[in-house]
Amino acid sequence: AQSVAQPEDQVNVAEGNPLTVKCTYSVSGNPYLFWYVQYPNRGLQFLLKYITGDNLVKGSYGFEAEFNKSQTSFHLKKPSALVSDSALYFCAVRGVRQGNLIFGKGTKLSVKP
Amino acid sequence: ETGVTQSPTHLIKTRGQQVTLRCSSQSGHNTVSWYQQALGQGPQFIFQYYREEENGRGNFPPRFSGLQFPNYSSELNVNALELDDSALYLCASSLLVGGAGEQYFGPGTRLTVT
Question: Contact B49/B70 with Cβ under 8 angstroms?
Fold first, then answer.
């Protein structure tokens, strides 16, 4: 069965420092991987996706993610964190049969000034 | 281009009642998916509609049902509400069924069952 795991419930980073939010996946076949961000009382906003090709994917708001097939990971990164990046981040994988998204439990990112 | 909209924003219902949630998909998108997000959890897939037909379903009982209309808007109906149905219900639209297309989410409907 397809699944994703986000091993950290919360990540704390100082403003201006690089940030990483971790995600590992389990799929049969080639993975379609996604990152979404959720601000309080809001829906999910699409950040980026990996389908095929370059292992480093660039997305919205300066975020990027690195796909690593051997480690089955798809970590979200940003070179310099902003306080406004504080939110809930979800990693997701596309379901094989139905095309739905299968989400991790989320990681709360807190960026302090 | 308009984004995904959902109504109502908040709703309070009593156990045993029925509820209907509504979603308007992003312009040009023909596929709508519904998700339930319980507090502190990631969204869970309920079902997906493509061209007015149910195209897939997650592990939710039959009292969760839906419709998609010719303009691709959608409804989620929940009968015989239970306390555990309290959650944020998210609608997402996309252009393609499955594949590599990302899904675009609405702001959600917060349902509280008392």
Answer: no
Least Cα separation, residue A9 to chain B (angstroms): 10
Q: Which of B32, B34, B45 to mutate to test the interface with A (most CBs of A within 10 A)?
A: B45
CB B31 within 8 A of CB B24: no
DSSP-derived secondary structure for A81-97: --GGG-EEEEEEEE-SS
pLDDT in tens, B55-80: 889 999 999 999 999 988 999 999 99
Q: Which residues in chain A have Cβ-Cβ distances shorter than 8 Å to B6?
A: 43
- Percentage of chain A lying above the pLDDT 70 cut: 97
- Give residue for tokens 């051997």: A70
Rounded mean pLDDT of A91-98?
81
Token code pair at residue B4: 């995904």
Contacts of A92 in chain B (CB under 8 A): 42
Using an 8 Å CB-CB cutoff, list chain B residues near A44: 43, 90, 92, 105
Tokens (6 digits) for A109: 């990112």
Contact B58 A49 (CB under 8 A): no
Q: 3-state class of A60 per DSSP?
A: helix
